[in-house]
Write a structure and sequence with these properties.
By secondary structure, the protein is an alpha/beta fold. It is 51% helix and 14% strand. β4, α4 and β5 form a beta-alpha-beta unit.
């Protein structure tokens, strides 16, 4: 059972997401928080597997929550719940340790798969949000604690990185390129190593910042 902490200051949003999650047999919402301070307390007390976190909340916002929990050494796998006008906060949230982001009006299947993915240690980036971020990055300054200049990527690695930026999974990339999924996994691993980052989300953001894609 994947134990989820739901954090949002809007009651209707929490009710909607909880209802969707309740349709899955392997996911359980163990608690809800309506502000950042409550989120920190519940995350420490309950140690959820996944936290669904709103960025814009009065008082302690989502970035503050992530930083506070990381400082305490108890930051759960986190998905940012976002709207289309949150580009800068989403980027800051990813830098602070979130593993991905989803729109608040996310479809059921995407939400459930996202929770399962981050609980399994993967990153989750919804393609439609990624495209919005790509358009807004020119006005956003994002700094990353990684290599100043990534090692050169091969043509195939760059091609795969572009597909990663679209939010496609290894299996989808393999189907698109007509190669084995294991081959894609090897390329992704090489990309992460060359970019000096630890996950797909940061590889994409680093590449965008460096103008590689």
């Amino acid at each position: 059972m994947i134990r989820v902490l739901l954090v949002d200051d809007q009651n209707l949003v929490r009710q909607g997401v909880r209802s969707l999650l309740g349709l899955a047999d392997d996911i359980e919402v163990i608690a809800e928080a309506s502000d950042g301070s409550q989120a920190v307390e519940l995350a420490e007390e309950l140690t959820p597997d996944v936290m669904l976190l709103d960025m814009r909340m009065p008082g302690m916002n989502g970035i503050d929550v992530l930083n506070e929990l990381r400082g305490k050494g108890c930051q759960p796998a986190t998905i940012i719940l976002t709207t289309f006008d949150d580009e800068e906060l989403v980027l800051a949230g990813l830098k602070a340790g979130a593993r991905g982001f989803l729109l608040k009006d996310v479809a059921l299947e995407v939400l459930l798969n996202g929770v399962r993915d981050v609980a399994a240690g993967k990153s989750m980036v919804q393609p439609v949000v990624t495209q919005r971020l790509l358009k807004g990055l020119s006005s956003v300054q994002a700094e990353f604690s990684s290599l100043e200049q990534p090692d050169p990527l091969t043509e195939r690695e760059t091609e795969i990185l572009r597909l990663m930026a679209g939010g496609y999974s290894n299996k989808e990339i393999a189907n698109a390129l007509n190669v084995a999924e294991g081959t894609v996994k090897n390329h992704v691993s090489n990309v992460l190593s060359k970019m000096g980052v630890r996950d797909r989300t940061r590889a994409v953001l680093k590449a965008l910042e460096a103008g590689l894609i």
